[in-house]
């Protein structure tokens, strides 16, 4: 209950969904059996709630790491340090790579130079992968990210499949911050990395459950969360917790009439670059274009399925016993104002900011759908993308708090509203930031078509 506002959301039920995903199923890396098992579990639960349920399948690349070792030379001996591979990065030769270190204390590309050639680059923090081609052009042997946060183990990260094909690739791994400090304090200057990754083609499954509205059936609100994880971890808060909230909202909100169509979506493959939500959004965009190109399409009489998408409410990273709540929104300022006013009314301490979040709601915002994205930060969320993102740091009370707010927001602005409080509009000043969330294959297809048109022979004049 939120400040004496009754809700039907059950934190206990959400906790059980979360526990099943995180512990009973466990790791849910893109395209693996664990992810597919989770998809079938969510689909089963959706059907039990009475939702019309389907699975949207799409191609992905997954991987296994058979070896990832890193050592630094300390005099005549080699000192070993734990590292985690960057998934879908490049393998080293079987014997590994060995070289002097080149230290970069930030990822500003203007400092990339020939001094990186044939070196193992140690980079503090992360980098904009758009700068990877420039880094690769100087010929380093490998790249090791020195985590900027203080943690017990290196984070587990996956390189986006399209980034490596379009922007270059090299062997990459993460080392925890304090091990990097140890290397620096000891003055170690030479190391060797052995990274062996095996890739295979697989598929992802978006799980879609829908309840059709009673009198506003042509207005669709998407409630979503991703259910996959980084490699080999429970992913309790990221994002079994968010998925569990979405599932409990599905149970509660579909038990009663709704004026608008509610579409609950559990997205796959978010950790490998929003693959599931980008595929979903791209599919809507391509069908929208085909329909509007038909001679029979009249914008005054007809709408596409993309047009009918009016709002997306995305839940990502939730359930931590202690933490801070925050919202990011894409759309007109009234979207943010609606969230902000409700937090004040219900006594929910949360920040509200304009702009995209690196999560699934941004994929739909990039094709014109206003988005509200809800996350929990601080506290044990520092363990994201590591084996310490575990159920022991999750509580039913934290899930109930986030789920209760979400229920009230959706009832007020979607389910019961006589008219939607904000237009289906992404302002121009937000479009640039959202470009990064367009599906890259769609861009590639457009470029190819444009190239074909430019090389086509001109029609003969009669």
From TrEMBL:
GO molecular function, one term: metal ion binding
Basic residues bias: start-end ranges: 444-462
GO cellular component labels: endoplasmic reticulum; extracellular region; Golgi apparatus; lysosome
Record bears the keyword Secreted: yes
GO terms under biological process: proteolysis
SUPFAM superfamilies: Zn-dependent exopeptidases (SSF53187)
Protein keywords: Carboxypeptidase, Endoplasmic reticulum, Glycoprotein, Golgi apparatus, Hydrolase, Lysosome, Metal-binding, Metalloprotease, Protease, Secreted, Signal, Zinc, Zymogen
Intracellular or extracellular location(s): Endoplasmic reticulum; Golgi apparatus; Lysosome; Secreted
Subunit field text: Homodimer. The monomeric form is inactive while the homodimer is active.
Predominant location category: endoplasmic reticulum
Name the UniProt record assigns to this protein: Carboxypeptidase Q
Domain Peptidase M28 positions: 206-402
Entry-linked Gene3D superfamilies: 3.50.30.30, Zn peptidases
Pfam families the record matches: Peptidase_M28 (PF04389)
Positions of the UniProt region annotated as Disordered: 437-462
């Amino acid at each position: 209950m939120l400040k004496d506002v009754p809700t039907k959301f059950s934190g206990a039920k959400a906790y059980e969904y979360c526990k099943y995903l995180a512990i009973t199923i466990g790791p849910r890396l893109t395209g693996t059996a664990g992810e597919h098992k989770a998809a079938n579990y969510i689909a089963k639960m959706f059907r039990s709630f009475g939702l019309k349920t389907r699975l949207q399948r799409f191609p992905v690349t997954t991987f296994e790491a058979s070896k990832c070792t890193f050592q630094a030379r300390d005099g005549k001996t080699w000192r070993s340090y734990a590292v985690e591979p960057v998934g879908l990065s490049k393998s080293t030769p079987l014997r590994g790579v060995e070289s002097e270190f080149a230290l970069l204390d930030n990822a500003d590309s203007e400092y990339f130079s020939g001094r990186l050639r044939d070196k193992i680059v140690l980079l503090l923090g992360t980098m904009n992968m758009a700068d990877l081609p420039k880094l690769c052009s100087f010929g380093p042997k490998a790249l090791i990210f020195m985590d900027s946060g203080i943690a017990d183990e290196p984070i587990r990260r996956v390189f986006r499949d399209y980034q490596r094909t379009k922007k270059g690739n090299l062997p990459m791994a993460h080392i925890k911050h304090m091990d990097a400090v140890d290397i620096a304090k000891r003055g170690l200057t030479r190391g060797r990395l052995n990274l062996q990754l095996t890739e295979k083609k697989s598929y992802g499954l978006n799980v879609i459950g829908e309840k059709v509205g009673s009198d506003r059936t042509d207005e669709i609100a998407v409630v979503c969360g991703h259910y996959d994880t980084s490699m080999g971890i429970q992913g309790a808060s990221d994002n079994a917790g968010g998925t569990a909230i979405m599932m409990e909202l599905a149970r509660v909100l579909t038990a009663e009439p709704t004026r608008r169509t509610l579409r609950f979506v559990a997205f796959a493959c978010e950790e490998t670059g929003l693959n599931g939500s980008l595929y979903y959004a791209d599919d809507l965009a391509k069908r929208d274009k085909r329909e509007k190109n038909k001679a029979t399409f009249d914008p005054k009489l007809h709408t596409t399925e993309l047009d009918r998408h009016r709002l997306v409410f995305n839940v990502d990273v939730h359930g931590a016993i202690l933490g801070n709540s925050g919202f990011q929104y894409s759309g007109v300022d009234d979207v943010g104002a609606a969230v902000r006013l409700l937090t004040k009314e219900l006594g929910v301490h949360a920040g509200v900011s304009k702009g995209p979040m690196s999560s699934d709601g941004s994929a739909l915002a990039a094709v014109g759908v206003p988005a509200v994205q809800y996350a929990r930060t601080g506290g044990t969320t520092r363990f994201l993308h590591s084996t310490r993102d575990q159920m022991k740091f999750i509580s039913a009370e934290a899930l109930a708090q986030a789920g209760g707010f979400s229920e009230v927001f959706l009832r007020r602005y979607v389910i019961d509203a006589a008219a939607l409080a904000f237009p289906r509009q992404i302002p121009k000043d937000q479009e640039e930031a959202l470009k990064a969330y367009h599906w890259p294959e769609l861009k590639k297809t457009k470029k190819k078509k444009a190239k074909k048109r430019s090389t086509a022979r001109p029609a003969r004049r009669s």
